[in-house]
């Protein structure tokens, strides 16, 4: 179990001497050390705990470090963890293999304690900065993506990625449909409406350019004629609270609301607590009744 306030480092190596040496050095620097003697053992550890950084031996019997890294990087919950390869192989091809597998750095054996600790500090700082940026985007509900001039997706936030996959569930990576690529090069200033299945629609809006060849876009669920904005104004809610409340009023459970809005169930629960306090109600039934009264009758 990881200790609060301490960095956790997973060391993966089939050499007891290397494990002992690194454990002593890293613990002396104030971090908690987890060890695994094989790639399969490392993946088992990672199913139970997410470390802050991983030191991974490149060459091990069975599942080697390169394949271990590829597998953990394929897990969205682990992809952000920096992996530093340890290897006695200094040939360029092995260094390239490690970086292509998802590693951020490498050290060659015999390992210097001072060097490995310095590299851990650097990559922990970089990972935290990157994670903070992602969390800032996620916490504000930003459904952002950047595309190049041809419409290929350069990067996207997790929420935007989920909505993009709704447009083409068979695609291995988030992609824009042909209609969006044509819209990018057209003269229309307004958002583009895209069908996303289940009767839902997505709105794609331009935000601006990032650098010389990236276009920043926002994608969001269409709120069926402005119902979210209407609830926001009428009930004094934030836009995110209004989105949550609208789906709750439509009979969706918290887990389903989280899936639709790309929020964790815990975040949905927190929003509901704030909504109940603002509306002066105690449960979703009472809140849903207020929604029914606040929204205009569609029959006119």
From TrEMBL:
Sequence ranges assigned to domain HTH luxR-type in this UniProt record: 230-295
GO cellular component annotations of the record: cytosol; protein-DNA complex
Pfam families xref list: GerE, Response_reg
InterPro entries: CheY-like_superfamily, Sig_transdc_resp-reg_C-effctor, Sig_transdc_resp-reg_receiver, Tscrpt_reg_LuxR_C, WalR-like, WH-like_DNA-bd_sf
One GO term (biological process): regulation of DNA-templated transcription
4-aspartylphosphate modified-residue sites: 57
PANTHER family reported for this sequence: REGULATOR OF RPOS, TWO-COMPONENT RESPONSE REGULATOR ORR33
Protein name: LuxR family transcriptional regulator
């Amino acid at each position: 179990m990881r200790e609060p306030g301490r960095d956790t480092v997973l060391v993966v190596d089939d050499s007891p001497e290397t494990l002992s040496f690194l454990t002593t050095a890293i613990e002396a620097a104030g971090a908690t050390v987890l060890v695994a003697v094989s790639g399969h053992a490392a993946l088992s550890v990672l199913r139970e705990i997410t470390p802050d950084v991983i030191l991974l031996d490149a060459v091990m019997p069975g599942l080697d470090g390169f394949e271990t890294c590829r597998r953990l990087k394929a897990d969205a919950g682990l992809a952000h963890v920096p992996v530093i390869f340890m290897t006695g192989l200094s040939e360029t091809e092995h260094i390239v293999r490690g970086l292509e597998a998802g590693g951020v750095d490498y050290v060659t054996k015999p390992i210097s304690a001072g060097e490995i600790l310095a590299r851990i500090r650097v990559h922990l700082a970089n990972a935290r900065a990157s994670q903070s940026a992602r969390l800032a985007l996620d916490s504000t509900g930003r459904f952002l993506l950047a595309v190049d001039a041809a419409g290929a997706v350069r990067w996207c936030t997790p929420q935007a990625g989920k909505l993009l996959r709704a447009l083409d569930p068979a695609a291995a990576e988030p992609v824009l449909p042909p209609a969006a690529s044509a819209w990018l090069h057209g003269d229309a200033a307004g958002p583009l409406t895209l069908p996303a299945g289940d009767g839902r629609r997505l709105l794609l809006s331009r935000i601006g350019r990032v650098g010389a060849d990236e276009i920043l876009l926002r994608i969001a669920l269409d709120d069926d004629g402005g119902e979210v904005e209407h609830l926001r104004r009428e009930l004094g809610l934030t836009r995110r609270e209004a989105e949550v409340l609208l789906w709750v009023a439509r009979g969706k459970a918290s887990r389903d609301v989280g899936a639709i809005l790309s929020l964790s169930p815990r975040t949905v629960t927190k929003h509901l607590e704030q909504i109940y306090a603002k509306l002066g109600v105690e449960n979703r039934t009472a809140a849903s009744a207020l929604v029914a009264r606040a929204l205009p009758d569609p029959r006119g």
